[in-house]
From TrEMBL:
This is UDP-N-acetylglucosamine 1-carboxyvinyltransferase. It comes from Desulfococcus multivorans DSM 2059. Phosphoenolpyruvate binds at residues 22-23. UDP-N-acetyl-alpha-D-glucosamine binds at residues 92, 304, 326. Pathway: Cell wall biogenesis; peptidoglycan biosynthesis. Signal peptide: none annotated. The modification 2-(S-cysteinyl)pyruvic acid O-phosphothioketal is found at residue 116. It catalyses: phosphoenolpyruvate + UDP-N-acetyl-alpha-D-glucosamine = UDP-N-acetyl-3-O-(1-carboxyvinyl)-alpha-D-glucosamine + phosphate. Keywords: Cell cycle, Cell division, Cell shape, Cell wall biogenesis/degradation, Cytoplasm, Peptidoglycan synthesis, Pyruvate, Transferase. The keyword Cell wall biogenesis/degradation applies. GO terms for cellular component: cytoplasm. It is found in: Cytoplasm. GO terms for biological process: cell division; cell wall organization; peptidoglycan biosynthetic process; regulation of cell shape; UDP-N-acetylgalactosamine biosynthetic process. The gene is murA.
Length: 415
């Protein structure tokens, strides 16, 4: 099993190109199930989660081809409507085939999903919404079984914003009869990206990026050619690493508008952040000031940046309070940061972080995707070597992060 070794004490300097967004690529590739003809997707990141969704689409008899970071998908003759446990257990986003299969072939049997252990993340909001569109849904033997002679638009309110729930309902509603109004929806850039792709395919989706999305159903969709948006979490991770190591890093091919909450907090820590059209430059300050953060749905501070920011606060001057409001189990990386010398006290959904002068390298174990990245960041400023085990989590969401870090001057390698 692979592990990553980091030797601390090397400021990051140089330029890094940000990959396509995993959380945009997964629903967009899945949207291919709604069309006949060949769809073309550029800037698709080379990640395990992307390989998993491609394998699932191929299992459903879609024709999937890959050429570098371009993926071609043709779903003319779908021969199956079941997403089995062996494929779905690897990744929660597999549930995204539920809406398109219902819309296209009027039935679906999808295993309840797996993924990182950062909280329950139930799919009940997906199922309630699909039922409102006319689907008959049962849960048996660990599978969601859904069928509908036809889907009919309705006015649907989400009890809380859900990214994958919003995406599933959007993809189901584009081929439903009449108009669907989705209220209290997620507003993430990945939602806007999916809406843009659906509209290029011939759908009529309006309001993405706001709390209300209106979808006028159409009889059929056609294939499209699109470019996946940059990964805002990968970009935020490198920005935090630059500030943490007192480095000087320029991020190319990113989208600064998607990073405003992270940029604002980094500036408060003393980092200098310069923004241009598709470029962000981060220069670390002489010392790091403590700031409080509270994770919130977009456009608030992203929960996927909480662990990385906690590392930054671990070596900051003073006390900081981190409040996690999205996932109930997202402090499981704290015990590993403590092994490196961090002073962190957790009470409920709040973590008090007292900055220490330095961290010390030690063997640690990654517990989920973003925790893996946070341990690499901690290793960058720890004295000595840090050995990070179970890095298969990392490969689900970061495209060759250790190579990109090494190109910036970090002493990091995979064994």
């Amino acid at each position: 099993m692979d592990k990553i070794i980091v030797e601390g004490g090397h400021p990051l300097k140089g330029e890094v190109v940000i990959s396509g967004a995993k959380n945009a690529a997964l629903p967009i590739l899945t949207a291919s199930l709604l069309t006949e003809g060949r769809n073309t997707y550029h800037n698709v990141p080379g990640l395990k989660d992307v390989e998993s969704i491609k394998a699932l689409l191929a299992y459903l008899c879609a024709d999937v081809e890959t050429d570098g970071d371009t993926v071609y998908i043709r779903a003319d003759g779908l021969c199956k409507s079941e997403a089995p446990y062996d494929l779905v257990r690897k990744m929660r986003a597999s549930i995204l085939v539920l809406g398109p299969l219902l819309a296209r072939v009027k039935k679906a049997r999808v295993s309840l999903p797996g993924g990182c252990a950062i909280g329950a993340r139930p799919i009940n909001l997906h199922l309630k919404g699909l039922a409102r569109l006319g689907a008959v849904i049962t849960l048996e033997h660990g599978y969601v079984e859904a069928s509908a002679d036809r889907l009919v638009g309705d006015d649907i309110y989400f009890d809380m914003p859900t990214v994958t729930g919003t995406e599933n309902l959007m993809m189901a509603a584009v081929l439903a009869e009449g108009t669907t109004v989705l209220r209290n929806v997620a507003r993430e850039p990945e939602i806007i990206a999916l809406a843009d792709v659906l509209n290029r395919m011939g759908a009529d989706v309006r309001g993405a990026g706001s709390s209300v999305i209106t979808i006028h159903g159409v009889p059929q969709l056609h294939p499209a050619e699109v470019t996946i948006i940059p990964d805002r979490i990968e970009a935020g991770t490198f920005m935090a690493a630059a500030a943490l190591t007192r480095g000087d890093v320029t991020l190319r091919r990113c989208e600064p508008d998607h990073l405003q909450a992270v940029i604002d907090k980094l500036r408060l820590t003393g980092a200098e952040v310069t923004v241009e059209k598709d470029t962000v430059r981060v220069r670390g300050g002489d010392e790091i000031a403590s700031v409080d953060i509270k994770t919130l749905p977009y456009p608030g501070f992203p929960t996927d940046m909480q662990a990385q920011f906690m590392v930054l606060m671990s070596v900051a001057r003073g006390l900081s309070l981190i409040t996690e409001t999205i996932f109930e189990n997202r402090y499981i990386h704290v015990s590993e940061l403590r092994r490196l010398g961090a002073d962190i006290t957790v009470s409920g959904n709040a973590a008090m972080v007292k900055g220490v002068p330095r961290l010390s390298g030690a063997p640690v174990m990654a517990t989920d995707l973003r925790a893996s990245a946070s341990l690499i960041l901690a290793g960058l400023v720890a004295r000595g070597k840090t050995e990070i085990n179970r890095v298969y989590h990392l490969d689900r969401g970061y495209d060759a992060i250790e190579k990109k870090m090494a190109a910036l001057g970090a002493a990091v390698w995979r064994v």
